[in-house]
Amino acid sequence: MSGAPTATTATPATRLLGIAAVVGLAGVVLFGLVLTPADQSQGESVRMLYLHAPTAWVAYLAFAVTALASALYLFPKQHALGWDRLAGASAEVGVLFMAITLFVGMLWGRLTWGVFWRWDARLTTTAFLFVTYIGYLAVRRLGGTPDQRARRSGVLALLAVLEIPLVHFSVKLWRGLHQDATVLRPDGDVELDGLMLFTLLLGIVAFTVVYAWLVIHRQRALTAEDLLDEAGLDVAIVERQQEALV
Amino acid sequence: MSWLDSAWLIARRDLLVEWRSRVALNQVLPFAAVVMVMFGFAIDDTSLMRRISPGLIVLATMFSLLLLVERAFVVEREDGALDALHIAGIRPSALFWGKAGALAVELAVLQAVLLVLAVVLYNAEVVPSGVALLVVTWLATTVALATVGTLYGGLAAGARGRETLLPLLLLPVVAPVLIGATRAVEAALGAKQAVTDGWPWTGLVAVFAVVFGAGGTLAFGPLIEDEM
To answer: How far, CA to CA in Å, does A11 sit from each of A144, B57, B128?
Structure first.
């Protein structure tokens, strides 16, 4: 294991991407906290929208990428591990962003609805997604060879694609029977003026760039981890062989 | 050996192992009963208990399902049984349906006992008009939980730390069964809604059973090949 200490997961392209991410986030902060007006009915709390909606979008994007990359690992004959690492990296970032979405959503819900949580289809499905992908990440850490990990987690990611519509549908059917909780507004949707809509779109673009940046780095770090494991195994084999010779 | 023969053989073997070891009978079934009693302590309101008894039956079933699935794959791990089956040329889909069949028999008995316990402990009542719905729901829930349990049990089989991982993976997935079976049993017992309102919920559970039956048939091979 003579890996160069200067090794890094960054390249000029990812550095540019990183700069773009930081600039984009600064723009979201500027527009979201300073330049946009407060909402007529929700007041200042509407600013949470600029964090809540983009992180939710990125989380869903991330899980879609995980499913797609898992299929690309499982179905072609080559079983390229690169797709599996992309799936894993994307799921990690997705879980992070979904945690932010849920946290901000609960705070926002408390302010606008008066409750942290409502058992409606959208919220409940989101919570299920979150738990499902925490399980997915746990399966990735079960150990074994990278190929075992890739196959196990790949099947799980595709099962999640089966499961999520079922959960969403059943929760929707279930909630249809019940009255909605008493809330200030029946829906979280907001009337957006031009500047607010622009800020929201800016948020979506900025957070998508952040997502891409994080996933590329994580994917490279995961590749390095797999290589390190492999190298470690080779070294161990050589050491045992030498022990046997002595 | 035909596909059906091997599936039948696996199911018979699993049930025979359970019957001889008495683990399901002497440990899992009493555990389910203890859970029902604990629910009673926690809720402590006879009218409320009766109203929510369908949900408690399904919840106790799911907790016991975790133990049964765990048990079903411990048997495979010991003495390299999976390797032996692989060498014997048993197809993974036959293995899946064999194991799911044995699990279904255990679950069917378990749920029947839980229903009796709910009648005794929670004062739940079976109305004659709801018997057909109750039986169909019982069958659909049994198949749904057996297929999804076998599939996720196979996923976690042979890996370190799987005992703690299985509940995290399995419980979110069976949420639609929890919702559907609870509403259907509520209707069948006349606890909250009319009997006819229960049928769509049983349909939901049946759809779940079909989806995971198909999913398991296709995915079980790639999942357990790792462990073989």
So the answer is: 31, 57, 72
